[in-house]
Design goal:
heterodimer; A: nine-stranded mixed beta sheet; elongated; B: alpha/beta; 13% strand
Chain lengths: 474, 493
C-alpha cells in the first residue's frame, strides 16, 4: 500500500523585544543565571502581569505577513502544570482567542508553488531552564528565560513531505528575520519547531495516528527526523502494526527518533481565562499603522528583483536571503547601474569574503558605494577584471576606496594606443620565428603575443586594446 | 478617652494641633496590644520596632509642618499584603517563612501617606474561610465575646480595630472577607469596586474577585483611607484608570431623596430574627431621614453561592500552584524525587480548607467538566451582574444585612463547610458583580453581639456608599451606641 505523510508544524519563535512579555526584565541571552529576574517573572506571591505592547505589535506583524485574520479582540488563558522551570505553576498563553488565525504562506515544492495553511498565531511566555548536575542528584533552575515573549505559529496539517516541511520552516524563518521580530537562532533556541506526523493510505481522507516529534534544533534535523519518522511509521504500518500516539525525541547522534523516556502522562492543562489580564483590543488604526511600517517581504522582493533587474532566479534567491544583503545589492545597482555585474560581484567575491570570516553583510568593510565605483571603473575600461579581483580583496582588507587602491598600486590600465604600439612593435621584432609561424597559420600563437604584451606592461594593458592592435599589427 | 480608642480623624486633629505626638499614639496602641493581644490574637506578626521608627519619622515630619493623609496613624495590615522585609504568611504554613522583597501597591501608598504599621493581622489561610479559624497561626477571637469567631477571612484586621489594637486596618474581600468580619466585630468595612484599588502585592486567592479595602471605626475614617488607597496602578492590568473623587466630600451630603433598594431575596429564611429586626429598624431610620425605599428583585441570587464556589476555587487552584516548595516558602525535606517533594510540601504546607478548594477548583477546570462547571458558572455570573445593572435602574443604593447571623461560636461550623459557606451568602454577590459594598454597625443582639448593615452600589459609586453610611451613622447615632456597648459589654481587661 502506498502511504502519504501528513505533517503539521508548531513553531515557537522568541520575540526580539528588549523586555519580557509581562515585566520589565531584559530578554538578552547568556547572562548569569537568575540575574534577569524580578518578583513578577519569579512568580512571587501577589505579583501581576502587565502585557508588553511590543509583543502584540510583533505578533500582528507576523499575522499580516502570513495572511492571517487579526482578531480585534483576543485574550490570554492559563495553561496549568507543575514544573520547576515554571515558577507560577501555569504558563500564560492564548487559548480560545488567539491574536491571529486562518493564514497561509507559499512555499516552492517540486510540484511548484504550494500554500501551507496557518491555523493560528498566538502570544505566550517562555519557561525557564533546568540545569542538571552530572555529579550530584540535583538540578538547578535558571529563570532568566522565564517570561521571554514567544509567538507560537501552528500550521495546518498541509505538509506532505520532509522536504516541504523544511521549505515551510525556511519560509517562516525568513519572514521572522525580515520583520526583525526574531533573531532566528535555532541553536540558542530562539526558533524552535515541533512536528506532528502521521501516515495514511494515499487517497484516504481520514488522518492516521500521529506521533509528536521534538528536539530538532536545525532545519537539517527537522528534515532528517521527519524522513526517519515517516519511514518508521511506514514500516510499522506495513508490518500490520499500529502507530502509537506519543511524543518522540530526535536523537541526532543515532539519527533516529525515540519515545520520550519516563511515563507518558496525559496532561490536562485545565486552561481557563487569565483573570489578571484584560482582553487585548486591537483597533483598525493600530493594524493599519503596523501595516505601513512592514518591510517588503522576501517573496515579494524576490519577484521584484527578477522583474526590475532581470537577474536569474537563483541570483534573486541568494540576494534576498536577508534584508541587509538585498539592501546592499540594491544600493550597488543604484550607484553603478549594472544589475548583473553587481549580482556577480556581491554573490561572488563579497559573499565569499564574508563567509570565510563568518561575517554579516552589515559588517562588510566594503561600502556599497566602493563596490559600485569599482564596477563602474571596470565598465569604463580603467581597470581590468583581473585588476578588480585584486582591488576588491584590498578594499575588503583595508576598507579603502577603489581609486585610492588603484593609485597606491599604480594599477591604472594602459588604454592609450600610442603607448602600446611601440611595446608591440618591440615584441614582434624580438620574436621573429613565432611571428613567422603565426603568419603561416598557427593561430594559437595569438595568445602567446597577448601574454608577451601583458608581461611587458605588468598586466596593465587593456586586454581589448591589445587584441585590436595585435590583430592589426600581426 | 485613651488615644488608641480614637478615630483617624480625631487623632489627625490632635496630631496637627501638636497636642499629641505620633510616638505617644503608637505607645498607647502598643500598651493596648500588650494588654489584650493574648486574649484576642489579632496579629500574626507585630512590627513594633519598625513602627517606632515610622512614628519617629512622622513626628519629624510634623515638626517640619508636613502633614499627610495618615501621618503617624497606626494601621494594621492583613497578612496577605506583601511587605518588604517583613514575613508575609497569608495565614499559611507554606508561606510561614516567606519574606517578600517588595511592597504591595497599597502598602507603598500607605507608607507614602505617612502611616505607621503596627503589624500583620491574622486571617483564614489564603483568605479561605469566614471565621479566621483556618489560619495556621491559630484562631482570632471576637473582642465582643472571646468564645466566638471574629468572622473572616480578615478576622484579625476586624478584631484589631474593634479591640483598639490599631486605629484602622486593611483587609481583603473575595466573597465578604471584609464586610462579614466588620459586621461581626462592630466596625466599618468597605469592599471597593473591582479595579478601584490595586491588587499588586496582594497574595492572590481568586483574582477576578479579590479586592482590598479598609476597616475603620467610623465612615469618615473609611473615606480617609479610601482617599489613600484608591486609584489606577500601571502594575495592575485590571485596575481602572478613572478619576478618584475626594471621598470625604460625600460625608455630609445627606440622603434626602435617595432611593434605597430592598432586595426581597436577601430577607429570607435563615436570616436570624434579631439581625433582620435590626436591619429593618435601620432601614426605617433611613426612611425617616428622607430616603425612599423601593422593593427590588435580584432574581439570580440563589445561584450566587454555587457560582462563587466554582469560580473562586478554580482560580485559587491555579493561583496556589506556585507554592511548590521549589523557590520559596515551605519545602518538605524528605522528598524522594521532584513529584514526591511537590506532594509532601503541599500536603504538609496547606491546611484542610485550602486543600478542599484546590481539589474543587482542579475538578471544575478539568477536561470534560469545564463546560458544565466553570463555563456555566461564568455565564450565570454574567446574569448576576445583569441583575444588579437592572436593580440600579430603580434605586441608588441597596440595603441588606451583611451577615445572616451575628458571630458564631469557635468550632461551631468547622466540621460543616456548607454551613460555613452560608456565612457569606449576602456578601458574595457583590464580588461576583464587581460592585462596591459597605458594612456599618447597626445594632446589637440581646447577647451584646454586633450586627452589620450592608449597602451596595453600582460600579465606582463608593462615594454614594460613604454618603449613605455616614448619614445613617449620624441619624442613628450609632457611634454612641457602639461606645456604650463597648463600655458595658466588651470585657477584655
Amino acid at each position: 500500500m502506498e502511504f502519504e505523510p501528513v505533517i503539521g508544524l508548531e513553531v515557537h519563535a522568541q520575540l526580539l523585544t528588549a523586555s519580557k512579555i509581562f515585566c520589565g526584565c531584559s530578554t538578552s541571552f547568556g547572562a548569569s543565571p537568575n540575574t534577569h529576574t524580578c518578583p513578577v517573572c519569579l512568580g512571587m506571591p501577589g505579583v501581576l502581569p502587565v502585557l508588553n505592547r511590543k509583543v502584540v505589535e510583533f505578533t500582528i506583524k507576523m499575522g499580516l505577513a502570513t495572511n492571517c485574520r487579526i482578531n480585534r479582540e483576543n485574550s490570554f488563558a492559563r495553561k496549568n502544570y507543575f514544573y520547576p522551570d515554571l515558577p507560577k505553576g501555569y504558563q500564560i498563553s492564548q487559548y480560545a482567542y488567539p491574536l491571529a488565525e486562518d493564514g497561509y504562506v507559499e512555499v516552492e515544492t517540486q510540484e511548484g508553488k504550494k500554500r501551507i495553511g496557518i491555523i493560528r498565531i498566538h502570544m505566550e511566555e517562555d519557561a525557564g531552564k533546568l540545569i542538571h548536575d552530572e555529579h550530584l542528584p540535583a538540578s538547578y533552575v535558571d529563570l532568566n528565560r522565564t517570561g521571554v515573549p514567544l509567538m507560537e505559529i501552528v500550521s495546518a496539517p498541509d505538509i506532505r513531505s520532509a522536504e516541504e516541511a523544511a521549505a515551510y520552516l525556511r519560509r517562516l524563518h525568513e519572514i521572522l528575520v525580515y520583520l526583525e521580530i526574531c533573531d532566528g537562532n535555532m541553536e540558542e533556541g530562539s526558533f524552535r519547531c515541533d512536528a506532528n506526523v502521521s501516515l495514511r493510505p494515499r487517497g484516504q481522507e481520514e488522518f492516521g495516528i500521529r506521533a509528536e516529534l521534538k528536539n530538532m534544533n536545525s532545519f537539517r534535523n527537522v528534515q532528517r527526523a521527519l524522513e526517519y519518522e515517516i519511514k518508521r511509521q511506514q514500516y510499522v504500518l506495513e508490518a500490520g502494526g499500529e502507530v502509537i500516539q506519543e511524543t518522540r525525541l530526535w536523537d541526532d547522534a543515532q539519527g533516529v527518533t525515540l519515545p520520550m523516556r519516563g511515563k507518558e502522562e496525559a496532561h490536562d492543562y485545565r486552561y481557563f481565562p487569565e483573570p489578571d489580564l484584560v482582553t487585548v483590543a486591537i483597533d483598525d488604526d493600530w493594524v493599519a499603522g503596523i501595516r505601513r511600517t512592514m518591510p517588503e517581504l522576501p517573496l515579494e522582493k524576490r519577484e521584484r528583483f527578477l522583474r526590475e533587474y532581470g537577474i536569474p532566479a537563483y541570483d534573486a534567491g541568494v540576494l534576498t536571503m536577508s534584508r541587509a544583503l538585498a539592501d546592499y545589492y540594491e544600493e550597488v545597482v543604484r550607484l553603478c547601474g549594472q544589475p548583473k555585474l553587481a549580482s556577480n560581484w556581491v554573490m561572488g567575491d563579497i559573499l565569499r569574503f564574508l563567509n570565510e570570516d563568518k561575517r554579516d553583510i552589515k559588517d562588510c568593510p566594503i561600502p556599497a558605494a566602493s563596490l559600485a565605483e569599482m564596477i563602474r571603473l571596470i565598465e569604463e575600461g580603467v581597470i581590468s577584471g583581473k585588476m578588480a579581483k585584486e582591488i576588491s580583496e584590498e578594499m575588503y582588507r583595508t576598507g579603502k576606496g577603489p581609486k585610492t587602491i588603484i593609485e597606491e598600486k599604480g594599477l591604472v590600465q594602459i588604454t592609450d594606443e600610442g603607448a602600446l604600439i611601440p611595446v608591440i612593435e618591440k615584441i614582434l621584432a624580438d620574436n621573429p620565428s613565432q611571428l613567422a609561424q603565426y603568419r603561416e597559420g598557427k593561430d594559437k600563437l595569438f595568445g602567446f603575443f597577448v601574454g608577451q604584451v601583458m608581461k611587458a606592461t605588468q598586466g596593465k594593458a587593456n586586454p581589448r586594446l591589445i587584441n585590436d592592435l595585435l590583430k592589426k599589427m600581426l | 478617652m485613651e488615644l488608641h480608642a480614637l478615630t483617624v480623624h480625631e487623632l489627625q486633629d490632635k496630631l496637627r494641633a501638636g497636642e499629641i505626638t505620633a510616638a505617644d499614639l503608637l505607645a498607647s496602641v502598643y500598651r493596648r496590644i500588650e494588654a489584650v493581644e493574648d486574649k484576642v490574637h489579632a496579629y500574626i506578626t507585630l512590627m513594633k520596632e519598625s513602627a517606632q521608627a515610622q512614628a519617629a519619622a512622622a513626628d519629624e515630619a510634623l515638626r517640619r509642618g508636613e502633614f499627610r493623609e495618615l501621618t503617624g496613624i497606626p494601621i494594621a495590615l492583613k497578612d496577605i499584603y506583601c511587605t518588604r522585609g517583613v514575613t508575609t504568611t497569608c495565614g499559611s504554613r507554606i508561606l510561614g517563612n516567606f519574606v517578600p522583597p517588595y511592597d504591595a501597591t497599597v502598602v507603598e501608598k500607605l507608607r507614602a501617606a505617612g502611616a505607621v504599621f503596627t503589624g500583620k493581622a491574622n486571617m483564614d489561610e489564603f483568605a479561605m474561610g469566614s471565621s479566621t479559624e483556618t489560619s495556621w497561626f491559630g484562631v482570632t477571637r471576637n473582642p465582643w465575646d472571646l468564645e466566638r469567631i471574629p468572622g473572616g477571612s480578615s478576622g484579625g484586621s476586624a478584631a484589631a480595630v474593634a479591640a483598639d489594637e490599631c486605629i484602622a486596618a486593611l483587609g481583603s474581600d473575595t466573597g465578604g472577607s471584609i464586610r462579614q468580619p466588620a459586621a461581626l466585630c462592630g466596625v466599618v468595612g468597605m469592599k471597593p469596586t473591582y479595579g478601584r484599588v490595586s491588587r499588586f502585592g496582594l497574595v492572590a486567592f481568586a483574582s477576578s474577585l479579590d479586592q482590598i479595602g479598609p476597616f475603620t471605626k467610623d465612615v469618615e475614617d473609611c473615606a480617609i483611607l479610601m482617599n489613600v488607597i484608591a486609584g489606577y496602578d500601571p502594575r495592575e492590568s485590571t485596575s481602572v484608570d478613572i478619576e478618584v473623587p475626594d471621598y470625604r466630600s460625600f460625608l455630609d451630603r445627606g440622603i434626602a431623596g435617595l432611593r434605597i433598594g430592598i432586595p426581597k431575596e436577601y430577607f429570607i429564611a435563615g436570616i436570624d430574627p434579631e439581625v433582620r429586626a435590626s436591619v429593618e429598624a435601620a432601614i426605617g431610620v433611613l426612611e425617616k431621614g428622607g430616603a425612599r425605599c423601593v422593593e427590588i428583585s435580584l432574581p439570580h441570587t440563589e445561584y450566587c453561592l454555587a457560582v462563587y464556589y466554582i469560580i473562586a476555587p478554580a482560580e485559587a487552584s491555579s493561583n496556589l500552584a506556585r507554592y511548590d516548595g521549589v523557590k520559596y516558602g515551605f519545602r518538605a525535606p524528605e522528598g524522594r524525587d521532584l513529584l514526591d517533594m511537590y506532594k509532601q510540601s503541599r500536603s504538609a504546607g496547606f491546611g484542610a480548607e485550602v486543600k478542599r478548594r484546590i481539589i474543587i477548583g482542579t475538578y471544575v477546570l478539568s477536561s470534560g467538566y469545564y463546560d458544565a462547571y466553570y463555563k456555566k458558572a461564568s455565564q450565570v455570573r454574567a446574569l448576576i451582574r445583569r441583575d444588579f445593572d437592572a436593580a440600579f435602574q430603580q434605586c441608588d443604593v441597596i440595603a441588606t444585612p451583611t451577615s445572616p447571623t451575628a458571630a458564631f461560636r469557635i468550632g461551631e461550623r468547622t466540621d460543616d463547610p456548607l454551613q460555613m459557606y452560608l456565612s457569606d451568602i449576602l456578601t458574595i454577590s457583590a464580588n461576583l458583580a464587581g460592585i462596591p459594598g459597605l458594612s456599618v454597625p447597626c445594632g446589637f443582639t440581646e447577647n451584646g453581639l454586633p450586627i452589620g448593615l450592608q449597602f451596595l452600589a453600582s460600579h465606582f459609586q463608593e462615594g454614594l456608599l460613604i454618603q449613605t453610611g455616614a448619614a445613617y451613622e449620624k441619624l442613628a447615632d450609632i457611634r454612641a451606641t457602639v461606645a456604650r456597648y463597648k463600655q458595658d459589654k466588651m470585657k477584655l481587661l
